[in-house]
């Protein structure tokens, strides 16, 4: 016995019902299978030569608007003959037309056909119609009725008489024809033999169901083979934002290296952002091009003791006890309260140095949003993240500073080589710029750093050296993510975020 | 950071070393002065150099740059002594300038061979000094004159706005001071410095010829230096004596470096009974402790080594002892405030890359801010619920925060100096950021589920900075059938996993559809809002799909769990 899949068997049996020849639509109706399933089974059976799939051209007939009108009211010659009969089989044309309520434009057509069909003759002298015999329903009228009822029909399905009527009505422009290809399945000889011999159906199932599992029936079935190469719908998982994921990794590394996180407010006083960092009050960075000023309220209260404020003031003015000459200008306490949007992460370091919780030795870091009045373009953002930190301990030297920079370059940037250059910040001396080299990426400037000036630490009551550093984290991310436009960090492109790989 | 343009050929000549237009080598050299080549225009032969140090105006021209670099390159080491000859000009200062622009400094440099390149360099230096060190001429402004056209003594006094007229630089007709402020480009640019006063500063010679209207503009007749000029008068004015004198020094030194011979001027301040001779080009002394140097650098340098390194950085050594050096500091090093400044120069001369980095084990325990741990858990939970994390700007504008959200404007943190109209304030809630995000993704595959855990900033008078930051979490779901129940189900999963029992209480919110919005209550406290976004809001953002959203303040969650 031939082994067939269940769906193939169904198709075969349905075909048998139609005497071995049927359209796909007929098989679908008979077997209850889907279009795709019937075609899949038919193709498989054709491969085994049990049947053949043909394409047949079919002509479909349907009534046009005029045809539909006549189907409803009767052909004009029929309406005319009926009226004539009622008028006593002989009457002048005008009377018959009037009786039949025949539309004017149909009159010549009706007169022509009534004579052509030999239903009546026209006496040209008297202009009167004479009925010959009571006519029976003819083929054209039957076709009209049928099409009106079914909407459309394949010519092949019509009797030879009606097929002739199609030609007549087509000439009368009452119907339309349309060509369509139709798939027909026909059993081959092998197919007939197979059916006779009987078929063994392999129980094959598409979906493994709980019922099949619980009942143990799964043992008796065969799970249908899938086309596992077929494409599937896209799924977009929830993920971390690529840049934030990168910052998470940086944070984790810093924590592992023994750094503790610092926090501070977004709106900051000029005192912590500048003054405590020995940036003179008329420094260009403090002008409207360098920092965002809060419109209102303009001044905050400074959360530092009176003597710290005095120390800072004196240091700016004359160096106080720091051994410095100071900036030598008149320091304004009012100006130190001016509220701004945090311009760099270093203000958090100043806050930490002043905190009663400060630990010595201590390592601190922060990842914070900072603001600068820049026009946003390919290389500038008006807000950005800074990764900054400090190390506080007695006996720290420039070597320690270089050490921490080297550590970051290796741990965070995965650098192969590092290079140091002199740098400048008003609050550090010496100051060092870090460049890291990575194979395939080249050199990138990766951070600025330094040892806080005595003018910074001493007024805050810190008598040990403090190493301060900031990492150029945006550039590192851009390098790693392969982007050259800094705006991409704050991208509003959901598609890019969705497609961005997580590693 | 100033960027200065220098003529390459001139730079090389002044440096005394051939560089063969090798930019990499040039960058290596410029590291000594914290500089970097920004652009090398080979056709024009001009290099743009960015100098990071904003406190070293002596480096902002060819003369100063090469003066310092020659030391590091071993061409010319040690301190460079400059001399100035006795006064040849008297300057009388009017006491009425006391509250306007009281100080002036002058020098005369004779027999300078000015070439076109040198003049351009001088103008460039003047511009950089005016803008950066001079704080846009508020602190200092510089004037250069052809000394041969001037008849001393000079009078630095005041004039009423319409009292004095002269032809300002670049013009052909006489204008009075008021007209200059109104019509001359420099008057329009810098007028704000003097406008508040009833009289303006004016510098004239003994024949009452106007030299300049400081800090606005020079005279076209006297205040113009050309290749024919042999003797140059330099003048600097400003409200602070020291910065005026510093600026004068830097300009004078440049002219001396070009072969000129400097003469001083005596400035008379009759009201202070004070007489000052300018410029003072003397070096001064600072003691440097050897141990201090080594303590900062982590090196073991001897006094002799330190002296050698100082010489490379163009300092002099007056006295060398075993434990300290008496350092001669040239007059132009106005940045030196503290011995630490000398220590850095020693390190630079030694070479940063020769110093061995040290990673020291310190008994510190690392740790994220305790709150950060919880915030990270919250983010992960949202991700688990199928939401994509996004990152948006905290700066925005009132239209996004209020108008488009169908809300009334409230007081927020606005900036006084916005750069563009799209970034004028800090956000006071998070949802507008997410709406803006969605409005940029109209045609990206749905459903769109996004969240952000971010900062908002609110006004709070009691606080130190009169504001407070709040961590907020907002999430939105957008697709054709998004609904209240869908977002509520997500929020429920979120809060339940944090161990909270919570309720929704009916509320009203103009951004949400009435009857489809609720306050989120945790422990009797309102921590946020959830609901379906109002079609008015969707329309304002040009969004086409319904949106269900929530926003919560993370404070309660953080407080309860830490």
Report on the architecture of this protein.
The complex is a heterodimer of chains A (503) and B (562). Chain A is an alpha+beta fold. Chain A folds into three domains: 2-52 and 186-211 and 217-223, Orthogonal Bundle (Arc Repressor Mutant, subunit A), CATH 1.10.10; 65-179, Arc Repressor Mutant, subunit A (Orthogonal Bundle), CATH 1.10.10; 243-499, Bira Bifunctional Protein, Domain 2 (BirA Bifunctional Protein, domain 2), CATH 3.30.930.10. Chain A has helices spanning 6-17, 24-31, 35-47, 65-73, 76-86, 93-100, 107-116, 139-150, 160-171, 189-197, 210-215, 242-256, 270-273, 306-318, 333-336, 346-354, 398-411, 454-457, 473-481, 494-499; strands spanning 2-5, 21-23, 51-63, 90-92, 120-123, 128-131, 152-154, 175-187, 199-202, 204-205, 222-223, 260-261, 267-269, 339-341, 362-371, 383-392, 417-422, 428-438, 442-452, 466-471. In chain A, the strands form six sheets. A seven-stranded mixed sheet of chain A has the order 12-15-16-20-19-18-17, sandwiched between helices. Chain A has a four-stranded antiparallel sheet with strand order 2-8-3-7. In chain A, a hairpin with a 3-residue loop joins β18 (428-438) and β19 (442-452). In chain A, α1 (6-17) packs across α2 (24-31) and α1 crosses α3. The radius of gyration of chain A is 48 Å and the shape is elongated. The two termini of chain A are 56 Å apart. The relative contact order of chain A is 0.09. With 562 residues, chain B is of the alpha+beta class. Chain B folds into four domains: 3-72, 2-Layer Sandwich (Phenylalanyl-tRNA Synthetase, Chain B, domain 1), CATH 3.30.56.10; 85-278, 3-Layer(bba) Sandwich (Phenylalanyl-tRNA Synthetase, Chain B, domain 3); 285-352, 2-Layer Sandwich (Phenylalanyl-tRNA Synthetase, Chain B, domain 1); 370-561, 2-Layer Sandwich (BirA Bifunctional Protein, domain 2), CATH 3.30.930.10. Helices cover 29% and strands 29% of the residues of chain B. In chain B, strands 4, 5, 6, 7, 10, 11, 12, 13, 14 and 15 form a ten-stranded mixed sheet that branches. The longest helix of chain B has 18 residues, at 116-133. The model of chain B has no long low-confidence stretch (mean pLDDT 94).
């Amino acid at each position: 016995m031939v082994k067939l899949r269940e769906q193939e068997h169904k198709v075969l049996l349905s075909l048998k019902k139609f005497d071995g020849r049927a359209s796909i639509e007929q098989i679908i109706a008979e077997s209850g299978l889907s279009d795709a399933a019937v075609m899949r089974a038919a193709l498989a059976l054709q491969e085994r030569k049990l049947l053949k799939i043909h394409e047949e051209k079919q002509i479909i007939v349907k009534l046009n608007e005029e045809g539909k009108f006549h189907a409803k009211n009767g052909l004009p010659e029929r309406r005319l003959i009926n009226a004539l009969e009622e008028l006593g089989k002989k009457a002048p044309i005008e009377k018959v037309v009037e009786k039949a309520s025949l539309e004017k434009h149909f009159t010549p057509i009706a007169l022509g056909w009534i004579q052509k069909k030999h239903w009546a003759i026209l006496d040209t002298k008297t202009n009167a119609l004479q009925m010959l015999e009571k006519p029976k329903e003819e083929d054209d009228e039957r076709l009209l009725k049928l099409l009106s009822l079914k909407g459309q029909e394949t010519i092949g399905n019509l009797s030879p008489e009606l097929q002739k009527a199609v030609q007549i009505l087509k000439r009368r422009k009452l119907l339309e024809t349309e060509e369509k290809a139709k798939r027909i399945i026909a059993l081959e000889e092998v197919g007939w033999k197979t059916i006779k011999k009987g078929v063994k159906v392999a129980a094959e199932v598409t979906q493994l169901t709980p019922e099949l599992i619980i009942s143990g029936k799964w043992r008796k079935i065969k799970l249908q083979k899938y086309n596992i190469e077929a494409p599937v719908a896209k799924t977009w998982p929830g993920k971390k934002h690529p840049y934030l994921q990168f910052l998470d990794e940086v944070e984790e590394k810093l924590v592992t290296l023994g750094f503790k996180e610092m926090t501070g407010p977004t709106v900051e006083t000029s005192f912590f952002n500048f003054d405590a960092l020995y940036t003179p009050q008329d420094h260009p960075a403090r002008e409207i091009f360098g920092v965002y000023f809060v419109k209102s309220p303009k001044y905050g209260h400074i959360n530092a003791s009176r003597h710290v404020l005095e120390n800072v003031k004196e240091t700016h003015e004359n160096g106080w006890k720091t051994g410095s000459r100071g900036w030598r200008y008149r320091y304004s306490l009012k100006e130190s309260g001016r509220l701004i949007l945090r311009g760099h992460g270093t203000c958090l370091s100043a806050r930490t140095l002043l905190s009663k919780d400060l630990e010595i030795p201590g390592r601190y870091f922060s990842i914070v949003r900072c603001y600068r009045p820049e026009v946003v373009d390919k290389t500038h953002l008006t807000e950005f993240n800074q990764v900054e930190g400090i190390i506080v301990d007695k006996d720290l030297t420039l070597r320690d500073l270089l050490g921490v920079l080297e550590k970051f370059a290796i741990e965070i940037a995965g650098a192969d080589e590092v290079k140091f250059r002199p740098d400048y910040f008003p609050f550090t001396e010496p100051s060092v710029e870090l460049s890291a080299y990575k194979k395939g990426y080249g050199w990138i400037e990766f951070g600025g750093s330094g040892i806080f000036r005595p003018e910074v630490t001493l007024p805050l009551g810190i008598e040990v050296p403090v190493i301060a550093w900031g990492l150029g984290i945006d550039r590192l991310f851009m390098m790693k993510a392969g982007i050259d436009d800094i705006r991409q960090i704050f991208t509003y492109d959901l598609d890019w975020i969705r497609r961005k790989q997580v590693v | 950071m100033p960027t200065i343009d220098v003529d390459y050929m001139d730079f090389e000549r002044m440096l005394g070393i051939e560089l063969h237009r090798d930019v990499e080598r040039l960058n290596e050299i410029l590291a000594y002065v914290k500089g970097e080549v920004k652009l090398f225009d080979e056709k024009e032969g001009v290099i743009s150099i960015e100098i990071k140090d904003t406190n070293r105006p002596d480096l902002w021209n060819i003369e100063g740059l090469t003066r310092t670099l020659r030391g590091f390159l071993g061409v010319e080491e040690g301190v460079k002594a400059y001399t100035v000859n006795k006064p040849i000009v008297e300057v009388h200062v009017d006491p009425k300038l006391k509250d306007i622009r009281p100080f002036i400094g002058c020098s005369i440099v004779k027999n300078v061979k000015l070439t076109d390149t040198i003049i351009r360099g001088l103008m460039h230096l003047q511009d950089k000094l005016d803008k950066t060190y001079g704080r846009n001429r508020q602190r200092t402004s510089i004037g250069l004159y052809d000394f041969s056209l001037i008849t001393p003594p000079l009078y630095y006094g005041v004039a009423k706005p319409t009292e004095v007229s002269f032809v300002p630089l670049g013009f052909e007709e006489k204008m009075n001071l008021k007209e200059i402020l109104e019509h001359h480009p420099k008057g329009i640019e810098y007028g704000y410095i003097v406008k508040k006063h009833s009289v303006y500063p004016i510098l004239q010679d003994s024949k009452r010829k106007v030299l300049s209207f400081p800090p606005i503009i020079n005279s076209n007749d006297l205040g113009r230096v050309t290749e024919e000029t042999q003797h140059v008068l330099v003048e600097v004015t400003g409200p602070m004596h020291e910065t005026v004198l510093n600026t004068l020094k830097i300009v004078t030194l440049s002219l001396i470096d070009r072969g000129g011979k400097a003469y001083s001027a005596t400035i008379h301040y009759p009201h202070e009974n004070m007489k000052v001779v300018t410029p003072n080009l003397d070096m001064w002394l600072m003691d440097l402790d050897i141990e201090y140097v080594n303590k900062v650098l982590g090196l073991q340098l001897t006094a002799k080594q330190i002296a050698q390194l100082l010489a490379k950085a163009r300092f002099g050594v007056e006295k060398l002892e075993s434990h300290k050096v008496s350092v001669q500091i040239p007059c132009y090093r106005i940045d030196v405030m503290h011995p630490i400044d000398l220590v850095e120069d020693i390190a630079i001369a030694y070479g940063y890359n020769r110093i061995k980095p040290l990673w020291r084990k310190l008994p510190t325990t690392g740790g994220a801010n305790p709150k950060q741990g919880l915030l990270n858990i919250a983010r992960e939970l949202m991700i688990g619920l199928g939401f994509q994390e996004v990152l948006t700007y905290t700066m925005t504008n009132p239209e996004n925060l209020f108008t488009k959200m169908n809300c009334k404007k409230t007081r927020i943190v606005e900036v006084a100096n916005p750069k563009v109209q799209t970034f004028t304030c800090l956000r006071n809630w998070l949802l507008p950021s997410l709406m803006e995000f969605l409005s940029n993704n109209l045609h990206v595959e749905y459903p769109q589920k996004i969240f952000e855990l971010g900062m908002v900033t609110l006004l709070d008078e009691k606080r130190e900075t009169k504001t407070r930051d709040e961590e907020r979490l907002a999430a939105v779901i957008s697709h054709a059938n998004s609904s209240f129940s869908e977002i509520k189900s997500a929020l429920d999963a979120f809060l339940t996993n944090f161990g909270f029992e919570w309720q929704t209480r009916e509320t009203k919110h103009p951004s949400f559809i009435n009857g489809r919005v609720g306050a989120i209550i945790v422990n009797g406290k309102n921590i946020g809002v959830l609901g379906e976004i109002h079609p008015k809001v969707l329309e304002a953002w040009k969004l086409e799909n319904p949106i269900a959203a929530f926003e919560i303040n993370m404070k309660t969650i953080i407080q309860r769990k830490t």
